[in-house]
Amino acid sequence: MAARTDGFEEPYLVCLGSTDEIGASCHYLQIDGTGIMLDAGADPEEDGLDSVPDLDFVQDRTDTWVDHVLITHAHQDHLGSLPVVIQNFPHVMVHMTRATRDLAGVLLPSSARLQARKLQEGSTTTEPLFGAEELDAYEYLYLGHHLEIPFDLTGVRGHTRVEGRLWDAGHVLGAAGVEIEIEDGDDVHRIFYTSDTSLTAQAILPGGSYPEGPIDTMILESTLGADPEAETYTRKSEERRFGEALKETLERGGTALVPVFALGRSQEVLAMIDRFKNRGIIEDDIPVYSAGMMRAISDVYDKTRFTTPRMNQDFEVYGVDQKRLPRGHNGLKNALEAPGILVVGSGMMFERTISNKLAQEMIGDEKNAVLLVGYAREDSPAGRLLVAENDEVVLDEARGMQDLRCQVERFRFSGHSHRRDLLDLVERLQPRRIILVHGDSEAREWMADNIKFFNPDAEIVVPVRGEPVRLLPE
Ligand SMILES: [Zn+2]
Ligand SMILES: [Zn+2]
Question: What is the CATH classification number for the domain harbouring 79?
Fold first, then answer.
């Protein structure tokens, strides 16, 4: 017989994805008979069911179910398991911004194709979790919302009225924080889930906007909580350094490889290259190549430029003169013959991706440069490049050790708020209870200590996967 969640005081929150690292983001809220899921992410480093949050917590109980899913943005760790959630709860309504809905239409089919390809290539033994065909049917469940306009989230068996509202989160196109209001007699309880958030502006997107405080509970990301360096860099000085590095590479006749994530960073990099050309930092006729899924995503950026927050609504990613990187070995070789800039995935340069293949051809020549603009895990090829010693590195196990003679440089362009900004946000919203998510233990510990220091009265919770915690303050 299915278990009941007796003993958990409603409303409660339970993290269904990993909590001591950045894995699949997925938080389940049980609010007086209404079941709400905040994000349905997949762990990008796992395959098959290992990548999916523990839906069993909800499945195995008679008094829990999912009425509504809110997707904060289209990154894999927030969106990737949505089809699996729909397979398990076919009556859910799925809420997101309209831009995120458009991006999901590009990213989920691409994830389905990648899963099928991995099985075919033999790099995994797990069956794909979903196929591209079934996604068309699921799209009818996706409701696109405008920012800051409230919508109903009361479940069919809900006893209290619940309302949702999306706030611009900066971060990437379509990203939103979620405000939830719970009616309680004459009282209203307010909860705010930041998800991934950027208080500061990037090249294309302005910083996020947030509800007025005070609120009852804040569910706060802590990605950069253990990163003291992040707060010492300014976007402006990093952008200048990036421009200089491109200029020097091109002037010595080299090619610059900029490995990027398809959603967010690639469009931001192209916007910066546009500025460098406009300001004469790099020559106008230097070819810029882009490739893969980022091109379809850039289309969504351009299509939504009048209806989503922008630094400059007239800017178009495709207004930046760019060529599609030629396919095939010869095509790649030709692109490397004259000075140019290659903006291609994957950001961490995983094996068999374009950035990895190009790097293998480039790193032996000191004229060239690999300019890393995003997060690189230590054990990824990009991470290995950063710490390479004795001018040798392994980019692909099949090829083995290679000579490393080109320039390798790292730049700090985060789509996340650094930790001082997150503390400012706590200050602004004045929550009485703070639930820390989306960060490793060290990051969440630093955040907890510092919030406690500035707000001794606040309740701070560091939840563990699968263990319910109170949603509202005592
Ligand atoms: Zn994200
Ligand atoms: Zn995330």
Answer: 3.60.15.10
Tell me whether residue 4 is in a domain.
no
State pLDDT tens for residues 247-266: 999 999 999 999 999 999 99
Q: Shortest CA distance to 225 belongs to which of 440, 460, 5?
A: 440
Contacting residues for 44 by C-beta, under 8 A, at least 6 apart: 51, 76, 77, 80
Question: Do residues 392 and 278 both lie within one domain?
Answer: yes
Ligand at shortest distance from the CA of 221: 2
Q: Are residues 323 and 453 in the same domain?
A: no
Q: CB–CB of 391/403 below 8 Å?
A: yes
> For residue 400, what is the domain's CATH number?
3.40.50.10890
| Structural domain boundaries enclosing 420 | 12-228+415-470
User: pLDDT under 50 in the chain at which residues?
Assistant: 1-2
Residue 155 and residue 303 in one domain:
no
pLDDT (tens digit per residue) in 187-240 = 999 999 999 999 999 999 999 999 999 999 999 999 988 888 888 888 899 999
Instruction: Report CA(333)–ligand 1 centroid distance (Å).
Output: 33
Between the CA of 24 and the centroid of ligand 2 the distance, in Å, is 8
- Ion ligand 1 neighbours, Cβ < 5 Å: 75, 196
Quick one: 122 exposed, middle or buried, by C-beta within 10 A (0-12, 13-18, 19+)?
exposed
- Cα 374 to averaged position of ligand 2 atoms, centre (Å): 13
CA–CA separation, 146 vs 99, rounded Å? 10
